[in-house]
Recover the amino acids of this structure.
């Protein structure tokens, strides 16, 4: 039985084209486990892949989708059996390996996680790679001794997938969270997630002084570039910054001053090749710590056929929160 998939090809002019196609099972890549995908999600990286705005896709044709959740149909590995509820994110899915924006995926058993107790496939993808990355950021800050009592925390790219979940997680633990956003009209929403203050992102997005007022006891940065440089310059003595994103840019026009004069720690957060133990902990904690009501309010659902059109608005920062994808419609 053929499966519906979003497929990316590259035209002679080098432009990426995205269209819905039917793929046969024997076209799927090698792997021990065949999964009936129920939900995937649309992440910043997927939008880059679909629009071709950044060289995310390493070989064509490619099925995009850096994450999925679904049910095992067939497994040649004893760790999984038909009917098991599973999820997968990262490991090059949608970049070097056909991904989750399809009704089926065949993957190595070593990459699969069981859905944590109390979480269904739709909830897992409402969280998706973005929410899981937010949890990796929170865990990174904790490893560097951040505590709610330590002082205020800054989250940049606040209205995005990572930002919204990071705010909810940190506020849920009792942190005073300031949300940096270019969309002040969404302030009420950010307050409803638990933010206690809003900062106009324009205050951070231009060149700034190497050392600024010591404002923040910890920070999650989704934006990079001048924003991250200004965040570093505004950290309190010894404070950690978890950097995961590049929504403003890949560059980091900073000085070493925050590191050598204030002992600031910059922690890189990678979700794609994070070790299995860290992944399991992150997903287990997400199942317990993220209010379900928040997830629903933060999520819009689209069908597979609607995804290509949503990529551009996502890159332009016009989408709030998360997009979950029902691959069967
Ligand atoms: P979204 O597109 O959902 O959110 C990004 C947010 O960044 C926007 O909502 C906007 O927030 C802000 N933003 C957008 N453009 C700019 C700009 N030019 N200057 C300043 N802020 C801007 O993306 P995600 O939340 O899913 O991902 C955030 C970043 O993290 C991305 O760069 C993504 O690639 C990266 N990422 C990295 C991972 C890793 O493994 N390291 C995993 C997942 C994501 P607002 O409107 O509130 O200002």
């Amino acid at each position: 039985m053929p499966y519906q998939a979003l497929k990316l090809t590259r035209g002679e002019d080098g432009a990426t084209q995205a269209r819905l196609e039917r793929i046969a099972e024997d076209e799927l890549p090698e792997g021990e486990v065949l999964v009936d995908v129920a939900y995937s999600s649309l992440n910043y990286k997927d939008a880059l892949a679909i629009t071709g705005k950044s060289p995310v896709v390493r070989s064509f044709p490619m099925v995009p989708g850096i994450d999925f959740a679904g049910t095992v149909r067939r497994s040649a590995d004893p760790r999984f059996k038909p009917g098991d509820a599973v999820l997968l994110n990262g490991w090059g899915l949608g970049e070097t390996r056909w991904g989750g924006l399809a009704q089926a995926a065949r993957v190595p058993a070593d990459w699969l996680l069981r859905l944590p107790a109390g979480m269904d496939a739709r909830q897992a993808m409402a969280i998706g790679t973005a929410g899981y990355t937010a949890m990796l950021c929170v865990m990174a800050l904790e490893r560097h001794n951040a505590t709610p009592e330590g002082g205020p925390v800054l989250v940049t790219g606040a209205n995005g997938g990572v930002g919204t979940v990071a705010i909810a997680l940190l506020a849920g633990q009792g942190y005073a969270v300031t949300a940096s956003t270019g969309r002040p009209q969404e302030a009420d929403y950010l307050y409803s997630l638990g933010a206690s203050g809003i900062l106009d992102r324009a205050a951070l997005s231009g060149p700034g002084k190497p050392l600024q007022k010591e404002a923040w006891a910890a920070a999650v940065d989704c934006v990079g570039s001048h924003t991250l440089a200004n965040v570093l310059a505004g950290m309190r003595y010894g404070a950690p910054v978890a950097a995961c994103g590049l929504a403003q840019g890949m560059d980091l026009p900073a000085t070493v001053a925050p590191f050598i004069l204030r002992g600031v720690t910059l922690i890189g957060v990678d979700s794609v090749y994070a070790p299995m133990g860290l992944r399991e902990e992150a997903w287990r904690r997400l199942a317990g710590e993220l209010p379900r009501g928040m997830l629903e309010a933060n999520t819009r659902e689209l069908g597979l056929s609607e995804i290509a059109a949503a990529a551009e608005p996502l890159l332009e920062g016009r989408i709030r929160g998360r997009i979950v994808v029902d691959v069967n419609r």
Summary: Residues 121-143 form the longest helix (23 residues).
